[in-house]
Structure formats: C-alpha cells, structure tokens
C-alpha cells in the first residue's frame, strides 16, 4: 500500500528539485524527507529519483508515479471537502495568498460580501507577489491563491490546480509629459517606443513578462534602464523624464499622475489576466466554495463598474 503522505513528499521534491527545498516547503527536516522517499521506493519497488547536479530529478518510474500522485491527492482533497460538508455548520479559516492589487480589487470586496453571505468563514490574507501565490498554494501554505498568468506558471491544464478566471485588465503607457507621443490621439503603438529607455518591474515579476511579451511582439527588446516593483516609483521616474513604462491600469489608481501622460496601447498582449486557484478537488470544500463565489462576484462587479 502506497502512503499518500509520501506521495505529497514526492510531489514537493518534483516541484522544488532538491530535498532541502522540499523539506522547507513541507516543514520537515531533509532527513525526514529522504526517509519518506526511501520508504516510497521500497513500497513501489522502483528507484524514483536520480541525482542531477546539485539537485535531483525524477526517473521514468518516478514520473509515472507522479502522474498518479496528482490524481490521488486531488481525490483526497475532494474527500476532505465531502466530509467537511457533512459536518454540521460551516465555520473556519481560509488562507488566501494574493498580490496587492488583487487584494484591493477583489479580495477586500469579497471579505465584505462573506460577512453577510457566509459569516462563519474567516479569511487570512497573505500579501504575495503574483508569481509567489501559486507555489504557496501547492506547498500548502495557502488554501486559495489570487494569481496572474506569467511565464513559467503551472499550465492551465495542470491537474494539481483548479482555476477560476476573475478579470483581465489592460496595461497603459506612462510617458513623461514632454514626450512627443504624450499629446497624440489614439492608442500608442508599442513599436514606437522601441528606442526609448524603459522603466519596469524586475525579472520574475509577472508584469515584467507582460511588458517583454508586448515588446517582443512589436519587434524589439525593451532597454530596461530603471527597475522597481513599486508602480508608484515607476510613475515617479517617468514623471522625471527617466523613461517610459507599461503599467497595469488598476496600479495607477491613487498615484500622482500630474506629471505624466497615461495612454492606451495598441497591443492586446499588454493585459494582466487574473484568476483564483485552489488545489484540485478543494473547490468543493464548504469553506472554500463561498470564497470563490465571493471573488467571482467581486470581479463581476469590477467589470460592470
């Protein structure tokens, strides 16, 4: 009989590529992880891991088992959801990891809605960058993630995760007031900014990926001169004439725009796609289901507004 706890360990090692990192994610010691993996190999009768430089990789047998592990773990989430639904009353805490704008736009309104629709559900909010919430979800540090699409994110068909689309928002070009395109009519062509110095988020930030994709589609690599993950700083630098930027529309709310021109752009790729995610099977949990409903309601109100 294969122990499901050891399947979780195998999944963590596959995600993090080292025993040490997997142990940290699981709140175990590296020796405990190694013992669980050794026991799993004994249970299955196959070598599941092989050395790969300083890390490890799954063998062919390990990859086969991992595919089944994802299905088993999802079914266990559904079992927990069914048992929780059977219990009398719905009360408890749901931990949600979200980037800051997602907290402001959909998570805070969802909390207000839950106070009326499901008063027994309490949310614990963790502020996380857009590329950090999904790993936190998969590692069990969060029950639900509000995340954005980015290069390297788990694919939409990843069986470990159930996604619920929330909203998509366009990026805006932020230009110094003295820029030749600042007062022009119509959307700014991204290609027309190819020779400019750029201001933008650091690599790894999902918004950095959106900017790169839009510029690559326009035929150039942006010359990123100034870097900040704080869009207030990005706007301030543009105000000083330090360069141009593409910024999500909602990130401009409450920012001093007196010394910049904010213009739409001609690229559909300059869009931030936001979704909620839970571990597969957990979407039926009586604590998580009303949170998803509240989030989709808040996103619908955002679109209507």
Model description:
41% of the residues lie in helices and 23% in strands. The strands form three sheets. Strands 3, 4, 5, 6, 9, 10 and 11 form a seven-stranded mixed sheet that branches. Strands 1-2 form a two-stranded antiparallel ribbon. The chain has nine helices and eleven strands. By secondary structure, it is of the alpha/beta class.
Please count the helical segments.
9
What share of residues is helical?
A: 40-55%
Instruction: Give a count of the beta strands, DSSP E runs of length 2 or more.
Output: 11
**C-alpha end-to-end distance:** 54 Å
Summed over residues and divided by their number, the pLDDT gives a mean of 90
User: Which structural class do you get from the secondary structure elements?
Assistant: alpha/beta
Secondary-structure map with pairings?
Elements: H1 4-16, H2 19-26, H3 30-44, E1 49-52, E2 55-58, H4 60-86, E3 92-98, H5 100-117, E4 121-127, H6 133-138, E5 144-148, E6 161-176, E7 197-200, H7 206-217, E8 223-227, H8 231-239, E9 245-248, E10 260-264, E11 271-279, H9 288-304
Parallel strand pairs: 3-4, 3-5, 7-8
Antiparallel strand pairs: 1-2, 5-11, 6-9, 6-10, 6-11
Question: Which labels suit this protein?
Answer:
305 residues; alpha/beta; 7-stranded mixed β-sheet; two-stranded antiparallel sheet; 23% strand
Summarize the structure in short.
The protein is an alpha/beta fold and 305 residues long. It has helices spanning 4-16, 19-26, 30-44, 60-86, 100-117, 133-138, 206-217, 231-239, 288-304, and strands at 49-52, 55-58, 92-98, 121-127, 144-148, 161-176, 197-200, 223-227, 245-248, 260-264, 271-279.
């Amino acid at each position: 009989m294969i122990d499901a706890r050891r399947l979780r360990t195998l999944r963590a090692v596959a995600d993090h590529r080292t025993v040490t990192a997997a142990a940290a994610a699981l709140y175990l010691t590296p020796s405990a992880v190694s013992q669980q993996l050794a026991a799993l190999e004994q249970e299955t009768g196959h070598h599941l891991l092989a050395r790969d430089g300083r890390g490890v990789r799954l063998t062919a047998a390990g990859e086969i088992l991992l595919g089944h592990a994802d299905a088993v773990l999802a079914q266990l989430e559904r079992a927990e959801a069914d048992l929780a639904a059977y219990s009398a009353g719905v009360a408890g805490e749901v931990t949600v990891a979200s980037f800051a704008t997602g907290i402001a736009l959909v998570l805070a309104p969802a909390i207000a809605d839950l106070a009326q629709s499901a008063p027994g559900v309490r949310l614990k909010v963790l502020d996380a960058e857009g590329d950090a919430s999904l790993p936190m979800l998969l590692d069990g540090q969060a029950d639900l993630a509000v995340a954005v699409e980015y290069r390297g994110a788990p694919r939409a068909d990843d069986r470990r995760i159930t996604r619920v689309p929330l909203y998509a928002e366009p990026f805006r070009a932020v230009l110094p007031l003295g820029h030749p395109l600042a007062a022009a009519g119509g959307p700014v062509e991204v290609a027309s900014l190819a020779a400019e110095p750029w201001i933008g988020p650091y690599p790894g930030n999902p918004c950095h990926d959106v900017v790169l994709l839009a510029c690559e589609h326009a035929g150039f690599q942006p010359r990123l001169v100034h870097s900040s993950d704080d869009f207030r700083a990005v706007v301030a630098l543009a105000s000083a004439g330090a360069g141009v930027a593409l910024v999500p529309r909602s990130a401009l709310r409450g920012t001093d725009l007196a010394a910049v021109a904010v213009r739409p752009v001609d690229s559909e790729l300059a869009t931030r796609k936001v979704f909620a995610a839970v571990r597969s099977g957990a979407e039926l949990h009586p604590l998580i289901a009303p949170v998803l409903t509240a989030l989709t309601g808040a996103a619908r109100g955002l679109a209507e507004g």
